[in-house]
Amino acid sequence: MKQIWAAVFGLAVGTGALASTIEPGSASSVRVCVEDSVVTPFVLIRGESIATEIFGNIGIRLKWVRRTRCDQSSIAVQVSTGAPPGHFPGALGYTRLAERQIEVFYDRVERIFEAPAVPNLLGHVLAHEIAHVLEGVNRHSAEGLMKAHWDSRDYVQMYPHLLPFAPEDVELIRARLGAFTSR
Asked: N or C: which end of the chain has fewer CB within 10 A?
């Protein structure tokens, strides 16, 4: 997989892939609180911006705050390392739906790509797990961002483009959005 990233990294540079697709004040906002002790600020901010763009493409704005500024309406994210091999084997993260809590296994994310691509993959993982909370169900789609296991085609598609939501995921997210949003 690291070789695939090396082949496509040049395509992602300078494409403007992070340009916002929504106007300020026009989208519903979802508050996401992050515990960021194991990730460098650059990697985390870049990952957050990728996730923000993915949701912006369906008209939802993510508001990122640090863990000290969380409230009960927020989605909580912990980025961790050192998950035991038997703990959600093969997963890059998981979501506890009832608690609105997400854990991202950063060490597993780092093993997939070379360092320059890690923020992009982190952003996709964040968006995938946030979507689970917003959908309110533990389900996956056959294609796109909410696919259960991304393959090499998906990883290649992530650069310079973003994996899209399947139409059924957009419908599920929008149906439950009122419980999470502010204008």
From this structure: C
